[in-house]
Amino acid sequence: MTDLENSREKQTDNKHREESEDPVSPPECHRRSCTDPAAFVALERYQEETGHGAVEAEAFLCQEHAAVESPANLDSSYADYVFRVEPL
Ligand SMILES: [Zn+2]
Prior knowledge:
The protein is of the alpha+beta class and about 90 residues long. It contains two helices and three strands.
């Protein structure tokens, strides 16, 4: 049974290693031709035109572009409409 225990340990090791090595690269700015790392996420929740329900659109933005981000779907706003910019 020593072999079985060894292999089980190895599997656990591998799993742990994969998780810890999982690369968490910071997202880049969503704006075209901007490669700055994103510092904010802009979230807009609006009612889809087709009436299928609320849609949430998220965009990662650098500080410069987050400052000029503005609501894009005000014509589809409704009671629970949301537009907000949050730091990452
Ligand atoms: Zn940017």
